[in-house]
Amino acid sequence: MLAAVFHENGGPEVIRVEEMDAPRPGPAEVRIRVEASSMNHLDLWMRRGLPIEIPMPHIGGSDIVGTVEKCGAGTVRSLLGKRVVVDPSLDYDWYRLARLRGYDGEPFRVIGEHTQGGFAEFAVVPAANVVELPDGFPAETAAAAALAGVTAWRGLMTRGGLRKGDRVLITGASGGVSAMAVQFANEAGAEVFAVTSGSENVRHVRGLGADHVFDRTTTDWGREIHRITNKRGVDLCLDSVGEAIWPQLLRALAVRGRLVSFGATTGPAAKVDIRLLFWRQLSILGSTMGTPAEFRDAMDMVFRGKITPPIHAVLPLHEARRAHEMLEAGEVFGKLVLDPREARP
Ligand SMILES: NC(=O)c1ccc[n+]([C@@H]2O[C@H](COP(=O)([O-])OP(=O)(O)OC[C@H]3O[C@@H](n4cnc5c(N)ncnc54)[C@H](OP(=O)(O)O)[C@@H]3O)[C@@H](O)[C@H]2O)c1
Question: Which range of residues forms the domain containing residue 45?
Fold first, then answer.
């Protein structure tokens, strides 16, 4: 099969599209003929090098959509021929167990990070992770929605406790996760504030349903939020930008406001004014991907057409290197999807 792989860490130039052996499904696994797999910021972190072991040479791609064409021992044969989207979380129950038993045992893992992913003609995943697509559902939409959708859903709904009428701030709004979060928040009846970059993105984010959109390259958005909310601030903020903007984020929160962090794109060492934290009685919460039930809830919103992840472009697999370059350069609104059916140039 053809796969987009890297053999060592580095810039986009380390991405190569090569012939490899197609993986075989083991017990409780299925093999999927991939129709679409979307890029996440995670693919950039992995290519650059993370302080964890990943299989090398590495095939990225945590979002996998395609047809089940081989079943390993112990799987339900009726899955054969089904079009599915894959829940990218492996062993999410580890989080629950870690509370009971401590940080022991096989930790939470992500398909395409700790295992080989979907930037290939075939991928092997646990049968338990596949969710059937509605008839004729577009592969690229499901692939764009999977990891980003469950992350946005858990961050806003479960961890953030979003309620109708909340004022919600979403940063990095052109990003894959955040563009979905804007829609989830809007659908839930929140007043949505969003920060993005450039007038074109501002227009797109408005189109997703945000009520107030700020261009971070030209606007003091913190001051604007202060003004629009009559100095009250926002009830909830969902952030992945991290270090560069945490001081402003904390100041933008209302009394008893919640900041949910799911990423640190600009760096991990944020500065927190502790006085602001206790005086305003703020909460800082972390969130990572989501449970199988949350994955299904988020995908259900997508299947019902309530939420549509914006897709910047669908590229053939052999353009995987260009996909890395585009995402790294911040040229992408929403998601980039790779189509391995177009693998051979
Ligand atoms: N914990 C989890 O489960 C989880 C899951 C998914 C992602 N993540 C993390 O969350 C982050 C976002 O992921 P993604 O896949 O949605 O990424 P993405 O599609 O690449 O989006 C990142 C967005 O961040 C904003 N940004 C980038 N540089 C910035 C800067 N210097 N200052 C302010 N904003 C900046 C940009 O939005 P604007 O131009 O619109 O401002 C950009 O579109 C990544 O760090 C990723 O690793 C974590």
Answer: 2-147+290-342
The token duo for 117 is: 């992913």
State which H helix or E strand residue 285 sits in.
Answer: strand 283-286
Q: Which atom of ligand 1 is nearest to the CA of 265?
A: 45
Task: List the structure tokens of 255.
Answer: 């009394």
CATH number, domain containing residue 236: 3.90.180.10
Atom 25 of ligand 1, nearest CA residue: 172
What tens digit of pLDDT does each residue of 254-269 get? 999 999 999 999 999 9
Distance from residue 128's CA to the centre of ligand 1 (Å): 29
Whole-model pTM: value is 0.97
How many domains are contained in the chain? Answer: 2
Write out pLDDT tens, residues 92-135: 999 999 989 888 777 899 999 999 999 999 999 999 999 999 99
- What is the chain's alpha carbon radius of gyration, rounded to the nearest angstrom? 20
307 assigned to some structural domain? yes
Pocket of ligand 1 (CB under 6 A): 40-42, 45, 147-148, 151, 172-178, 195-197, 201, 216, 240-241, 244, 262-266, 288-289, 327, 330
Atom of ligand 1 nearest to the CA of 198: 39
| 154 located within any domain | no
In 3D space, the residue among 235, 232, 225 whose CA is nearest the CA of residue 256 turns out to be 235
250, 319: one domain: no
